[in-house]
Amino acid sequence: MKHFFLLHVAVYVVVLLGSLCEGKVMMEYIGATGVPVTFEPVPIRDEIDFHFILSFAIDADQSGTYQNGKFSPYWAETLTPDSVAAIKEEHPNVKVLASLCGWSLGDKVLAWYNPKDPKKWISNAFSSIQEITNTYHLDGIDIDYENFSKRGNNTFAFCIGELLTLLKNQSVITVASIAPYHLTTQPYIDLFSAYSDVIDYVNYQFYTDKVRQPKGYLEAFKLRAGQFNAEKLLPSYEIDGRGIQGDAFFDALELLEDYGFDVDGVMIFSADGGAANGYYYEKKSQDFLLNSTSI
Ligand SMILES: *[C@@H]1O[C@H](CO)[C@@H](O)[C@H](O)[C@H]1NC(C)=O
Ligand SMILES: *[C@@H]1O[C@H](CO)[C@@H](O)[C@H](O)[C@H]1NC(C)=O
Ligand SMILES: *[C@@H]1O[C@H](CO)[C@@H](O)[C@H](O)[C@H]1NC(C)=O
Ligand SMILES: *[C@@H]1O[C@H](CO)[C@@H](O)[C@H](O)[C@H]1NC(C)=O
């Protein structure tokens, strides 16, 4: 009888802890720099939804000519369909996304180019992403256009919003995120204000704001939380990069919590640079997320 009771208490505690950790998310870009990176060595905590973001799928051929919405994968060749299947099998809490576009392909700086026929672009994008998703066993899409043509109508919000809506509606993907930075907030605000229903996370690139101190980070977070949505906005860190560096990042996360923001996720760019420091930021970010679970 006593044992029976204890068993029930144990089950209850496990369920309680599980539900408190629900919704904690780690997002990490991988495969953008050309180094032969793999999923295997990245530390993954079971209690956190770990999202790898393959960088990048691009609407262009190898020479950088745009393909009217027909995306192809350009991430590190070491990130194969089999390796995606393997990491997801080993860790059921792992999801894998493909990020669309990125900064450049080879020497060519990529831009949102306002397709002449938006409906055709959406339909090409839908089919090519569906194919990539099936081949690579993906769960979602991240949007990382970083340069916007000033000419013509801005078709970005419409094309991307309709694409995400269709991909979700047809159950091709279950997760969608967007990755604005300080020079691209407006097109992303346009997108988010019309299509927030289909956007799960905002991977705002805080490192581009070049804020180096926790107090400045809090101010930047308040600004972006007002432009997007505090619940969906993730603090972010660039390994060996711009903006806040080292343990000051974790001081900034504490400051966000002290101010009243719930830090339920962290985005890191990128796993390509993680091995060099023993994945310090991946480990400590996940520890922070689990520590901040309050009873
Ligand atoms: C966008 O790309 C063009 C080159 O294609 C470059 O001249 C321009 O500076 C870029 N804009 C931004 C905001 O980076
Ligand atoms: C912009 O949109 C308006 C209204 O939909 C249309 O009349 C106009 O031709 C478009 N301009 C360009 C450059 O696509
Ligand atoms: C897809 O859209 C149709 C029509 O609006 C709707 O009835 C259906 O519930 C949607 N399915 C999903 C999975 O969102
Ligand atoms: C998590 O909590 C432990 C125990 O209180 C502490 O030693 C550690 O520094 C914390 N880690 C982070 C990243 O907050």
UniProtKB/TrEMBL annotation:
Classification via Pfam families: Glyco_hydro_18
GO molecular function: hydrolase activity, hydrolyzing O-glycosyl compounds
Record keyword DNA damage present: no
GO terms classed as biological process: carbohydrate metabolic process
UniProt keyword annotations, A-Z: Glycosidase, Hydrolase, Signal
UniProt keyword Signal, yes or no: yes
Residues annotated as domain GH18: 24-295
InterPro entries: Chitinase-like (IPR000677), GH (IPR017853), Glyco_hydro18_cat (IPR001223), Glyco_hydro_18_chit_AS (IPR001579)
Signal peptide: 1-23
Name of this chain's protein: Chitinase 2-like
